[in-house]
Request: fold
Amino acid sequence: VQLQACRGGLVQAGGSLRLSCAASGLTFRYYDMGWFRQAPGKEREFVSGISRSGGSTAYADSVKGRFTISRDNARDTVYLQMNSLKPEDTALYYCAADRSLYNGRTYVAGAVHEYEYWGQGTLVTVSS
Reply:
């Protein structure tokens, strides 16, 4: 299984970025997908998640109204549109896959241990 996150970069405060994560080696439509982030010296935290069909989403309070998660099951890709970025959004962003079809989970998971597969991370830096 490979999750390839990309499209991170350097942006000024107030700007936008769109992260993408392409999955391979798994049946993408069977998995809920999530985005997490980890800033230096901090624990990895949940940012957003989306159900297999895309019909349910979840967001951390810190990004609600600014970030939007979406997925394209035909392209095996999940996206994170990030608007109105703030310096505190600076972190390494990871995508992750939760095999919800197999484990019977009926909600979008928000904890690190609930996701089975992880990408390598893409760096987002927001300058003030």
Summary: The longest helix spans residues 100-103. The mean pLDDT is 95.
